[in-house]
Specification:
Elements (H helix, E strand, L loop, with lengths): L4 E4 L3 H12 L8 E4 L7 H5 L3 E3 L2 H7 L2 E4 L6 H8 L9 E4 L6 H8 L4 E6 L9 E8 L3 H12 L2 E5 L5 H28 L4 H22 L3 H8 L5 H11 L2 H18 L1
Parallel strand pairs: 1-2, 1-4, 2-3, 4-5, 5-6, 7-8
Antiparallel strand pairs: 6-7
Helix pairs in contact: 7-8, 7-11
The protein binds NADP nicotinamide-adenine-dinucleotide phosphate.
Length: about 260
């Protein structure tokens, strides 16, 4: 399936999706149209051959797949302006908008569209996102197409839509949690003797390698910890001290607080 793609909302995420799809060769630049009101920030995509426009109706006429990448508060107005231009026999609508449910989107478009909700993270800019997907009325061809598309931009998991808030916390807020962990490692590394640049390289590559042991070898984290913790050694002493200070507990509590905040707001 070679669909033409409209990205409505060419901001951080919209442009990262366009860049990733072009870089991976998944879509030809001329098969993408990207819209926003101020077009000056889209010049680099335009130079690569992407169509740019401030006319969302033109984008819907052009595309089979419509990716909604605007802010949550902009969704209702936009969908009510565009609802009569959606064609349920042609369009597949994908929303990356945080916190807006599929049923809310269907109400907004007032027609029986196939809708996919996607929750990527900022690593989509380097095609290393974790993207969780939930779907409504989407056939098997479209399901495969969605999986192919987001696989160009990182890894994909299909989830029940009721887990979207949990996916937001673990997958999207998770980038901030991981960055704070990395930052703390770097600060510790500087205190024990490295300059900031070397500490950053060692900490980041070590965390990347640890993640890859799980992703590429299918290891269990605790089994990998056992391999590094020599009896009476320095690793177990450090790990246990971190746990005495509430390391795992503080991470779990942070995740639950973030989740409860989404649920409450
Ligand atoms: N950034 C992430 O990593 C991430 C991850 C997961 C989900 N999300 C969600 O993705 C959505 C986009 O996030 P973002 O970080 O890319 O926000 P952003 O940078 O503010 O991008 C939104 C873009 O929408 C454009 N826009 C606003 N109204 C429009 C309209 N009527 N027609 C066409 N374009 C319009 C804006 O440009 P103009 O003002 O020029 O029109 C802006 O560039 C948000 O809902 C966010 O919650 C983001």
């Amino acid at each position: 399936m070679h669909k033409k793609i409209a990205i409505i909302g060419g901001g951080n995420l919209g442009t990262a999706i366009a860049e990733g799809l072009i870089k991976s060769g998944f879509t030809l630049p001329e098969h993408i149209i990207i819209t926003k009101r101020n077009l000056s920030t889209l010049q680099s995509l335009e130079k690569q051959g992407v169509l740019i426009s401030d006319d969302n109706v033109e984008a819907l006429r052009f595309a089979d797949l419509v990716i909604l990448a605007i802010k949550p508060f902009q969704v209702d107005d936009l969908l009510s302006q565009l609802s009569s231009h959606f064609d349920e026999r042609r369009h597949l609508l994908v929303s990356v908008v945080t916190g807006v449910s599929i049923s809310h989107i269907l109400n907004g478009v007032s027609r029986k569209l196939a809708v996919v909700r996607a929750m990527p993270n900022t690593a989509i800019a380097i095609q290393e996102s974790m993207t969780c997907l939930a779907a409504h009325a989407v056939g098997s061809d479209e399901t495969r197409y969605m999986e192919d598309l987001f696989s160009q931009l990182g890894k994909v998991a299909w989830i029940d839509e009721k887990l979207m808030d949990a996916a937001t916390v673990l997958g999207a807020c998770g980038t901030a949690f991981a960055m704070r962990y990395l930052r703390a490692n770097i600060q510790g590394g500087i205190e024990i003797g490295f300059d900031a640049a070397t500490a950053t390289l060692i900490a980041a590559q070590t965390v990347k390698g640890a993640a890859d042991l799980i992703l590429k070898k299918g290891s269990h984290p605790e089994a990998e910890i056992d391999k590094v913790t020599t009896p009476r050694g320095c690793t177990i002493a450090g790990v246990n001290e971190m746990e005495h200070q509430g390391f795992s507990s503080s991470l779990i509590k942070g995740i639950v607080v973030s989740y409860n905040k989404i649920a409450k707001d």
